[in-house]
What we know:
Number of helices: 16
Order of helices and strands: HHHHHHHHHHHHHHHH
Shape: globular
CATH topology: Growth Hormone, Chain: A
CATH class: Mainly Alpha
Helix content: over 70%
CATH architecture: Up-down Bundle
Largest sheet: none
Low-confidence stretches: none
Distance between the termini: 48 Å
Radius of gyration: 21 Å
Structural class: mainly alpha
Amino acid sequence: xxxxxxxxxxxxxxxxxxxxxxxxxxxxxxxxxxxxxxxxxxxxxxxxxxxxxxxxxxxxxxxxxxxxxxxxxxxxxxxxxxxxxxxxxxxxxxxxxxxxxxxxxxxxxxxxxxxxxxxxxxxxxxxxxxxxxxxxxxxxxxxxxxxxxxxxxxxxxxxxxxxxxxxxxxxxxxxxxxxxxxxxxxxxxxxxxxxxxxxxxxxxxxxxxxxxxxxxxxxxxxxxxxxxxxxxxxxxxxxxxxxxxxxxxxxxxxxxxxxxxxxxxxxxxxxxxxxxxxxxxxxxxxxxxxxxxxxxxxxxxxxxxxxxxxxxxxxxxxxxxxxxxxxxxxxxxxxxxxxxxxxxxxxxxxxxxxxxxxxxxxxxxxxxxxxxxxxxxxxxxxxxxxxxxxxxxxxxxxxx
Length: 400
């Protein structure tokens, strides 16, 4: 890539760096927030993490409309400004509900930003560069997560309100994109007729929903789980989240290579990593095992993230359709994040069990089942292709 292309890629990837902060950044501070507001249940405290995605979802769809009217760059800048207001404003609110209100504002800003993380890659890059940047996008999120985990954990040890200062990083992202992101104007041409979304696309979106429901159980639970089990305070949970992020970062750098090696078993590999991570957390009594399991869960999401968005790209026949599908997939991603606690609470009621260990073991079982199904489908597709290839060779020989 040329120098200008590298600057543009840096600006685009910086957007991914702040999307992960929208809800998960302050997870090491949850136990401190619980101590500050002791009359609220764990589920209420977890709203600090799960409420922003609820407001991200409608903002994602509004983002698509705004982009058509004003262009990507202006919408991105507006989103970052709202993001800064909500992220930093939560630290200044005197009460729990007013803090949640600012978290909702943060979600609205994040809803304008998050679809851009993939749409800007699709709009500005093609071919192998686009494939690599899709994997790097997940790594960029994790890289910010690593820095945030160490920073937030230590800030929260001083006072939980200081954890929200991490959102100042969005100011640097704003400056970078103002300087280097091309100012793509809205298109004057009339939009083409919308195609019906295929069943394959809806299935992919649903998979993103389920993956995020499972994945964000880790960030919304780990601090409270460790406090409950006496495995460490906010600084230690920050270190655990940092390991979680670090493994996701390094895995994101090599997802394209993993994909080429595993081929149709790529997503089954993701299920294996996350399933083993949650299975281990269900058994963990010592801190070292918690760190290992955090690494497995973190690495799994880079596999899933790249696989899902590359599949969405394959299912899109035009740029307009790609923007639409990425927007809906992003909404599905945050819907899973928002409902993760509620879905697992429902599983507790159905199974007549409760607690973080049950939730981790339940997710491990679900991921094992999903991995087996994906593996079976991969074997079936491989056999089907071999049969077709054999028939083709036989037909060629017969014609000779």
